[in-house]
Amino acid sequence: MALCVRIIPCLDVDAGRVVKGTRFRDLRDAGDPVELAARYDAEGADEIVFYDITASHERRATSVALARRAAEEVFIPYTIGGGVRTVEDMRAMLRSGADKVSVNTAAVKNPDLISEGAERFGSQCVVLSVDVKRREDGPGWEVYLNGGRVNTGRDALEWLVEGERRGAGEYVLNSMDADGTETGYDLELISAVAEHTNLPVIASGGAGHPDHMVAAVEAGADAVLAASIFHFGEWSIAEVKAWMKKAGIPVR
């Protein structure tokens, strides 16, 4: 029996507020992160992801206060990422109430962070998030850091394979090309990652309609993450789930 596909609202947090833009630019305010998360919990979201989108760039720690506030108001699993640099940072997030911790920039710079986190807390707590963009000079995708500001030149598929080997539990696969456009996920990217790795893939970047989510699952995603369509009232969680269920996608 097929596992149910998870519907996951993503809350990008900057200076204590949820923001959303297009391709990481032109950010719009969308509200208080914990209030939004609690609303999505009540509406039937399966999980929540919080990303402090400027923590790595500004070289500061992810907010433990956010994790604690969320623990008081949100009763579904939630992940926090952004600015997580050490195993102790991961421990602080988990002790404050987060169910999982997402690593990105620091993991690329120090891949042992994945291994050490998985060994201490279990792979189920370690989410490898990756911001990728199509290569300009050929096929494939490259890994970007610091909220999409720095191109590492590293092949995304190679990095995700290494992340699996080191003990990550799942991926958040964010297409910078599609982010905020609401024109659909990068299906070629999702398929390539699903073919090369065995971990659950959370598709991110480009959701504008439930049909996009259906297509992402058919391409190989195990969960779909979205922001704009939920934050600005285009679709509710219930409407998305009803649409996907009608399309034959198993949802809770």
From TrEMBL:
GO terms for biological process: L-histidine biosynthetic process. The active site is at 12, 131. InterPro entries: Aldolase_TIM, His_biosynth, HisF, IGPS_HisA/HisF, RibuloseP-bd_barrel. Keywords: Amino-acid biosynthesis, Cytoplasm, Histidine biosynthesis, Lyase. It is found in: Cytoplasm. PANTHER family: IMIDAZOLE GLYCEROL PHOSPHATE SYNTHASE HISHF, IMIDAZOLE GLYCEROL PHOSPHATE SYNTHASE SUBUNIT HISF/H IGP SYNTHASE SUBUNIT HISF/H. Belongs to the HisA/HisF family. This is Imidazole glycerol phosphate synthase subunit HisF.
